[in-house]
Specification:
Radius of gyration of chain A: 22 Å
Strand content of chain B: 5-15%
CATH topology of the largest domain in chain B: ABC transporter involved in vitamin B12 uptake, BtuC
Number of helices of chain B: 20
Structural class of chain B: alpha+beta
Helix content of chain B: 55-70%
Number of strands of chain A: 17
Oligomer: heterodimer
Distance between the termini of chain A: 50 Å
Strand content of chain A: 15-25%
CATH architecture of the largest domain in chain B: Orthogonal Bundle
Largest sheet of chain B: 5 strands, antiparallel
Strand order of the largest sheet of chain B: 4-3-2-1-5
Largest sheet of chain A: 7 strands, mixed
CATH class of the largest domain in chain A: Alpha Beta
Distance between the termini of chain B: 105 Å
Radius of gyration of chain B: 31 Å
CATH topology of the largest domain in chain A: Rossmann fold
Order of helices and strands of chain B: HHHEEEEEHHHHHHHHHHEEHHHHHHH
Structural class of chain A: alpha/beta
CATH architecture of the largest domain in chain A: 3-Layer(aba) Sandwich
Number of strands of chain B: 7
Helix content of chain A: 25-40%
């Protein structure tokens, strides 16, 4: 018994030694995306994207003369496990950078660990804002880069006067809807013209909610639904809309969580004409995008694989990190974080993404109409918009700004009281 | 004569040319410009048949143009990367070309809605009743003073009573809004028999006007309409409740046999439902041209697939664990995970697309305040048919007699010469097969993915326990009660609180009556 234990120990020590020997020659890239559980559907795609980017970078000769080495872990859609896995990545595997998380709750669970161990995390999904961390780069959209421009589009193009804010019951929809409601009211929409509705995860019986929407929408004013309904609940929702005879022309639905990947598992017939707002669509016409799609299809060996917005965010994040490391000449967190701000790389829609001092990106806002082939027809595209960490439409955060550049170096600086409310670096 | 003919020919060719030229403007223009072009086109070329073709092509996103010379073309068919097209104006079929050679004439909701309105003015006189009905609805939503002429013209020709009723209401609304004196008053009073929201809006406008007498009349009519609408909204809620109840009934029926009659806690019941849904998907994949009949084929297929899996589970696992409920629970939970993973590996973890046949989509419109969706309607009927047949099997056939005998007193039944092992397997197979059938119905309403079953397992147990274990009628009443309760609570307290409230109510109820709505009576029920 004792001997086997000693044996095991020595093997483990040997293994660890060989691992650390290897570590000296490579730059380690952590990949923290769920590969099992409910979020696996969305997150495995991002894992593959990072692996593809790493492979490509290695073909170009790596970074700083070293090869990149991916360290893939599976937090299994389990929020506390995200924090645990992040800790392992930073302390045991000693990764230099991590790409990961999808849901806001997983990001919130990882946040204290990354900050404590001074790691570096790239978060590639649109989120509710109201956060800015020294150690995190938010390459997805903040509400002013997705929700608000979408509402503006409906207000101008379709002259919508009445609004249904429908969402799944968790932090992202709740915060986004709070911001949207404040924004709409600031634009002169009466409170009685806004209907807010929350449903549980995986809601499948939409009969009475859709009937309510129909009733709300037949008051003589043009009505639209702003949907933050998450994942699986969307299919029965759109089906019910179709069955109750509500077409996109009567009451358009603009969704923030329905992309190409989600549409791939749906009979798109009842969805045609409904809208989605993102910063990237596969149908965007640019040479970089064409190349990216071709490469992705070749990498996954599946000619039908689609690309989507969080993939573009991962693509931009990865390229920016490569540039920042090259500029800093090291993978040391503090130096890379400092070098990141101001980095510019091309995005996939033909423009340029720039990392702002608040660790958010500049992004164009695209509105697309769903087509019968599961792709989006882009009906509106704005110039690049600066990502805003703290919403200007919520009383609690209206005076806050974030700027991680010296001399401010603060994630939540109150411009009225001239005080930094949180940690500084 | 010749000259006349020639000039006619010339005129017509000029005419054709201008339509072509005007339509050509659609290629490079913004949405706003396109709307203007569409309006002009529909005014200038109202009698040109090609206009309808052109408009319909835009509506169905079939209008493209060649990048090389910008000729407008209709898309006929697409395969992989190639488009089959024909030109819009010369109807000449073009050689098949790679899709990169074409570009779509873009449209959006606003443009489509303008086109649909313009089209409805034409289709109001079409031969097809459905088209006329749609057109009439469309016109109702965009009424103005000038609509009356069109409406009267259509009414004069119209024979169908449904379309006629809508057009008459349209006429009344226009009269109520824009005419004077007695005619206006009569129209306002007559509108009180309508049920539509659009009439209410029109009347609201009059109510807020200066004329006091008219305002009073309008108020009275609105009150009358609202009374009617309230009544129908209750009917609608009851229907929603029935439909949710029938889904619960379908999901729970199999369980009420395996759990209720056989007392086996089968945690894999949800996965048997999922297998049924995947069978539907597979059938649609095998016979892609028979989507309309796929569900009819899927019902027996799903029953057989799930029943076979059920019998296998019973023979290899549950049989060894009878009278050890805790072990059965754990073992079947394990089986449920295995089944999920098998589906994940075979079909991929992504949701699968199950198509809805034409006859299942859309709604049956009873009047403008009430329409029942076909898919729900069919599922309610289907659930009741299935329920009655199960009831028949258990109560009226010799198999049912044996099943009841075995579950009531195994030793005695054995002594009577009943092969209890066989009966166990058949009963479990029946329960599992019913789960598969439920899967076929669910595939029409929700996502078909590996997690489908988990969403329904808790609800199914809830229904069976609430209704009374071992009583089929209990399951029926239980399912319908929970369905109605949900749908009557939901509008006032929201979807989340409804779930909480229903669960709390059931827990309280079980506290008071632990054996459910219809407890089994007799000596057998004591254990």
């Amino acid at each position: 018994m004792k001997t086997t234990f000693v044996k095991k120990l020595s093997i483990a020590a040997l293994l660890a030694a060989s691992l650390s020997a290897q570590a000296a020659e490579t730059i380690k890239v952590g990949v923290l995306h769920s590969l099992s559980g409910t979020m696996a559907i969305s997150e495995t795609t991002l894992k593959d994207t990072v692996l593809m980017m790493i492979e490509e970078q290695n073909k170009k000769g790596g970074l700083l003369g070293k090869k990149l080495e991916p360290v893939v872990v599976d937090p299994a859609s389990n929020w506390p496990l995200f924090a645990e896995k992040m800790r392992t990545l930073l302390t045991k595997d000693k990764v230099d950078v991590t790409f990961g998380c999808w849901t806001s709750v997983s990001r919130k669970s990882v946040l204290p660990v990354v900050e404590e161990l001074n790691g570096l995390l790239f978060y590639p999904v649109q989120y509710e804002g109201e956060e800015s961390s020294y150690n995190v780069f938010y390459t997805g959209a903040s509400p002013n880069q997705q929700a608000i421009p979408a509402v503006d589009y409906l207000m101008e193009e379709s002259e919508v006067k009445r609004w249904v804010l429908a969402g799944t019951d968790y932090v992202y929809p709740r915060t986004t809807n709070k911001i949207l409601k404040a924004y709409l009211m600031s634009k002169g929409v009466a409170e009685s013209d806004i209907m807010v509705n929350y449903t549980p995860f995986g809601q499948s019986d939409w009969q009475s909610i859709v009937a309510d929407i129909k009733k709300f929408g037949s008051a003589g004013k043009k009505t639209a639904v702003v949907s933050t309904i998450n994942g699986d609940a969307n299919v029965p929702f759109y089906k019910e809309l179709g069955n109750q005879g509500i077409s996109a022309e009567d009451i358009p639905v603009v969704a923030f969580s329905v992309g190409e990947e989600e549409l791939a598992g749906i009979d798109t017939k009842p969805l045609v004409g409904h809208l989605a707002a993102w910063n990237y669509f596969q149908s965007a016409e640019s040479d970089v995008n064409e190349g990216f799609i071709k490469e992705w299809k070749a990498y996954t060996k599946n000619p039908k694989r689609v690309t989507n917005d969080p993939m573009e965010a991962t693509y931009i994040g990865f390229n920016m990190w490569v540039k920042a490391v090259t500029k800093a000449g090291t993978t040391d967190s503090d130096k890379v974080i400092d070098a990141m701000v101001g980095i510019k790389t091309p995005n996939l829609t033909g423009g340029t993404a720039e990392m702002l001092p608040n660790h958010h990106l500049t992004k164009p806002v695209l509105i697309g109409e769903i087509q019968d082939d599961g792709q989006f027809e882009i009906v509106s595209q704005t110039k690049e918009v600066d990502g805003d960490a703290w919403s200007d439409f919520l009383p609690g955060s209206k005076d806050l700004i974030s700027n991680w550049k010296a001399p401010l170096k603060c994630g939540n600086y109150n411009t009225k009281t001239k005080k930094c409310l949180g940690d500084t670096k | 004569m010749k000259i006349l003919l020639l000039s006619l020919l010339l005129i017509s060719s000029i005419f054709a040319n201008t339509f072509e030229l005007d339509a050509q403007k659609l290629v490079h223009s913004s949405t706003k410009e396109k709307i203007k072009i569409i309006k002009e086109l529909s005014e200038t070329y109202a009698n040109d048949k090609r206009l309808i073709l052109l408009f319909n092509a835009i509506l169905n996103s079939k209008l493209f143009y060649k990048k090389s010379d910008e000729t407008l073309v209709f898309l006929l068919k697409k395969d992989e990367n190639n488009y089959h097209t024909k030109t819009v104006f010369s109807s000449q079929v073009l050689p098949v070309m790679d899709k990169s050679g074409y570009k779509k004439v873009r449209s959006n909701n606003r443009l489509r809605s303008v086109i649909r309105n313009k089209l409805s003015e034409i289709t109001l006189f079409s031969q097809d009743k459905e088209l006329r009905l749609k057109a009439a609805h469309n016109i109702m939503e965009h009424l103005d003073e000038d609509s009356l002429e069109l409406i009267n013209k259509a009414l004069f020709k119209e024979k169908d009573s449904d379309v006629k009723a809508i057009l008459q209401e349209c006429g009344l609304i226009v009269m109520a809004k824009y005419s004077q004196g007695k005619a206006q008053e009569d129209a306002i009073i007559a509108l009180s028999d309508s049920l539509s929201q659009i009439s209410i809006q029109a009347l609201e406008g009059i109510k807020q006007g200066d004329n006091e007498k008219l305002a009073l009349l309008a108020k009275k009519s609105i009150g009358h309409i609202n009374d009617g609408r309230t009544f129908y909204s209750y009917v609608e809620k009851a229907f929603f409740g029935l439909s949710l109840g029938s889904i619960l009934l379908l999901a729970a029926l199999g369980l009420s046999i395996t759990f209720g009659v056989m007392k086996v806690i089968n945690m894999a019941h949800g996965e048997l439902i999922m297998l049924g849904a995947y069978t539907t998907f597979t059938i649609q994949q095998i016979f892609p041209s028979m989507i309309e009949y796929s569900l009819l084929l899927a019902i027996p297929a799903a029953f057989i697939v799930s029943a076979i899996v059920g019998v296998l589970i019973e023979r290899f696992v549950i049989r060894h664990l009878y009278s050890r409920p805790l072990e059965t629970l754990l073992a079947t939970f394990g089986i449920s995970l295995i089944l999920q993973q098998i589906v994940r590996s075979v079909y991929s973890p992504l949701n699968q697309v199950v198509k809805t046949p034409e006859w299942m989509s859309g709604a049956l419109e009873i009047n403008s305040a009430l329409s029942l969706t076909y898919s729900r309607l069919y599922i309610i009927i289907f659930a009741i048919v299935i329920f009655l047949s199960v009831l028949f099997i258990l109560k009226k056939t010799s198999l049912g007699l044996k099943v009841r005998a075995v579950t009531q007193n195994r030793q005695m039944a054995q002594a009577m010469g009943i092969k209890t092992g066989l009966i166990d397997a058949i009963t479990f197979g029946l329960g599992s097969g019913l789960a598969g059938v439920a899967g076929v119905a669910l595939s029409q309403l929700t996502n078909v993915g590996p997690n489908l079953g988990q969403a329904y397992i808790v609800d199914s147990f809830m229904v069976v326990v609430f209704g009374g274990v071992g009583n089929l009628w209990g399951t029926f009443i239980g399912a319908m009660t929970i369905g109605e309760l949900n749908k009557f609570l939901e509008p006032s307290v929201g979807a989340i609180l409804t779930k909480v409230l229903v669960l709390v109510m059931i827990i309280l109820f079980i506290q008071k009556k632990p054996r459910g709505l219809f407890p089994q009576k007799g000596r057998d029920a004591q254990d």
